Amino acid sequence: MKKRARWTACLIPLLLLTSCSFYKSERSAEELLALAVSGLSGVDRYTFDGETTLLLADGRSARTAKFEGEIRNHRNLSVHVQGAQDVQTGQWMQIDRKGPDRWIARDGMKEAEEGADWNAVQTLERLVGAPKNVAYLPRRPENRAWIVKADLEAAHATRDWKRRLEREFESAVQAAQTSIAKLPVSRNDDFRREWNAEIAMSRKELERMMKGLNVQSTYIVAIDRRRMLPLEITELTTLQYERDGQTCRESRTTNVTFGL
């Protein structure tokens, strides 16, 4: 009797440990992720906040942005973004369009029409539609959430980042040209010639870097077991490229928490 009691005392904690640390939903991880993202459209009002940190190729760490957003009436989004040098705000509306890119700008930060890192809802929508491998991770000790990990296909992640880098480059060029156009006529021509030469060199350098660009992106999503809604997102992205004969790596981490 005592021997059986000792076995019981050992097995019960073991069973509790294993059942709490790694328990899967009856759905596949990819189905669960899609269900959770779809469920957001049924929530009338919620908030999210996040932070993006960039680790540069030379090892320097730069905190690029903190952001917070609010969804009202299912599809009206307002966002406040605080970067290293400025503060921006904007408003968008989700429109009835197939696919994840359904957000149009109503005021400020027009690049939102093509998507932005701080639009956490759009990030999830794009993740669902992207080619990826999705799997369960061990559940958290508090037993509140399922955890799924989504690894984007490298070719897809690389193409996406190439488009993003090109957009950012052209946006910077346009902003600089607008500033130059405001200079006095006597200085405008000289600045324009110097600027055009610099842009041509920078564009060639960007093209060389993107030829060998390889991007790896992983998303970890915590999903509430009771409400079947996303609680947190963590994005881990690494960019590898060649520059001046050297292999360079940059990484970016974005953490987002939903208030539901």
What does this structure look like?
By secondary structure, the protein is α+β, with helices and mostly antiparallel strands. 37% of the residues lie in helices and 37% in strands. It has five helices and ten strands. It has helices spanning 2-21, 29-40, 120-129, 154-181, 185-211; strands at 46-55, 61-72, 76-83, 87-94, 103-107, 132-137, 145-152, 214-224, 230-243, 246-259. Helix 2 packs antiparallel against helix 3 and helix 4 (154-181) packs antiparallel against helix 5. The longest helix is centred in the middle third of the chain and has 28 residues, at 154-181. The chain is globular and about 70 Å long. Residues 1-23 and 111-115 have low confidence and may be disordered.
In short:
With 260 residues, the protein is an alpha+beta fold. The chain has helices spanning 2-21, 29-40, 120-129, 154-181, 185-211; strands at 46-55, 61-72, 76-83, 87-94, 103-107, 132-137, 145-152, 214-224, 230-243, 246-259.
List the defining traits of the structure above.
10 strands, alpha+beta, 10-stranded antiparallel sheet, 5 helices, globular, 260 residues
- From the alpha carbons, calculate the radius of gyration and give it in angstroms: 23 Å
Q: What is the number of helical segments per DSSP (H or I, 4+ residues)?
A: 5
Integer average pLDDT: 77
Shape: globular
Quickly give the structural class: alpha+beta
Are there runs of 5+ residues with pLDDT below 50, and where? Answer: 1-23, 111-115
Number of E-type strands: 10
In percent, how much strand structure appears in the residues? Answer: 35-45%
> Biggest β-sheet, characterized?
10 strands, antiparallel
Distance between the termini: 51 Å
**What strand order characterises the main sheet?**
5-4-3-2-1-10-9-8-7-6
Order of helices and strands: HHEEEEEHEEHHEEE
